[in-house]
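Batch manifest line 660
LIGAND: zinc ion
JOB: complex structure
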Amino acid sequence: MKILYLLLTLLIVIFNASASDSESSDLIPKAASSYTQESNQAIKSYLPFLDKTDFENAKKGFIGTIDSGVIYQENKAVSYNMQEFDFLNQDSPDTANPSLWRQGQLNRIHGLFKVQDDIYQVRSFDLSNMTLIKGKTGWIVIDPLITPDTAKASMQLVEKHLGKFPVSAVIISHSHMDHFGGIRGIVDETDVISGKVPIIAPKEFYQSAISENIMAGNAMARRASYMFGNLLPKNETGMIGSGLGQTTSVGLPGILKNTDTISSFEGETRIVDGVKIEFIYTPESEAPAEMMFYFPEMKAFCQAENINRTFHNLYTLRGAKVRNGQKWAQYIDLAIQKWGSDVQTSFGSHHWPTWGNDNIVEFWQNQRDLYRFVHDQTVRLANQGLTPKEIAEQLKLPETLDKQFYNRGYYGSVSHNIKAQYQLYYGWFDGNPANLNPLPPTEVGHKYVELAGGVEALLQKAKESFDKGEYRWVAELLNHLVFAQPDNKTAKYLLADTYEQMGYASESGPWRNFYLTGARELRHGVKVLPAPNGLTPDMIDGLSTDLLFNYIAMKFKGTDVDAAKMQYNFNISLPDANEKIALIINNGVVNPRFNYEIKNDVTATITVNRKDLNRMSLGQVKFAELLSTQAMKIDGSQQDFIAFFSKVDNFEFWFNIVEP
Ligand SMILES: [Zn+2]
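JOB STATUS: finished
ARTIFACT:
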């Protein structure tokens, strides 16, 4: 889980899902077609649905939960609502892949659970789990959720049932926000600074957490609104869960710097509040900075997010750098080597635990082999000359791996993870010159419409294929027409109906959400809601000056005629941070130099405190106000600096995705 799509949920962006009576039938969700029903039925007979072990384990050790099922923010707005998914109580409907439906049923089981003596978990109070280990003087908390509200509610539940103990340490398993954002809800920053409460995290945790989504953030967050189904109603024709957990909490995530760092691949040991913990550092796996760890005295293992009850993402559909399945498998194998013969309990930062040595080792091995198989076989077939779409179509997991519920692609998918491993080695180009410089979507759309014999002929073909259940082909045909004629409602509604059937049949939560959100925006258009602010005070504070100015450089409108002519040299001094930055502007490019001062041809020297730049980034103060209050001083050409600053872009959040 990454940062910006979580921030998306800072604002509740769900709009009214129910169609009013006046709406035509084109605008409302349709029933599952016979082809979709058949496809969903096939999954039912393929997977061992009669095995209820997962349900027993997800409920095992239940102590209690919040009766109301709702967690509130301080301002009384809802942070997390566990009741929204009550509809999953029923058997899976025709409009859902039964395997994804089952995963949602499991993921919605919420409350405080005893994992074993001295180990407890609060589950489904957020997307992720919070785990508590009983130390000598208090709780060692692992992964304090996304927002302070859900973290605090979890601690209150623990206190109610297990008594009041202080937090003696925090362990953050990796750099994704669903594993640290709620930290301010359970510890006081002064206790961290004074050394009373250590925070243990993997090397590069803080930098990775802050920087991972800054550069690409706006488009990533918009795509995340598709991936997580934030715009969909939660019901049987809408969002039914993300596969990893149900959904994300709403509130203001924070971050604190860790005080202790794990950096050894071989392993390193700590005694934390009297409890022995053995760590291994596992970077560039599920997260850039991650670690797994073992409690030898309790024979218990924390999987972090490297071992899960789903096939995780080697590529995440909101858009991010791809991950390496080989490294991922190697880390799991290292855990097997080190602790496989000893472990009795294995728990993760998502989903429910596994008990018993045999069960655990089999689970770890099958997860390891899943990542290894997809990595190795993809690259093998690529070396045979196959291209991504071909490999994704032909490569199937061995049944021994494929029939394990925990290996199913509820979050990732075999298909898109295969393409990710191809991309890891070969990038976007498949080597076929036809794909080197194809026409862009609108232009190729017009050509296909022409080739089909016009709009009506193309629509006719699309309808025939739709009636045969050839949804992938219909999507391709109609996508061409919608990009050629974005006002053609017949095309848009039929494409929406097509995406919808594809969503109903998807086993991956993100796939379902992408298809159904696409359908929704084709039917209703893009609703421009308040755009989420991707930057929180803690994130801005943590942003290095280096990254901040590289970010500004990226936002410079270098294609603008006037901007392209600018030739400026600015020296910027940040007295409170004791930093100097030079900006060299030429050719539509901003080159920042850090700890550097230009000596000759200086256009202007700007003096401003970093804290005021932070306030400006948070929208708390305007550029003009900084100038008029002298919080920003400009020696030299003020006009040129203002001209430069006027060419720094602002991003629109609600850009089109399913139409031009
Ligand atoms: Zn996570």
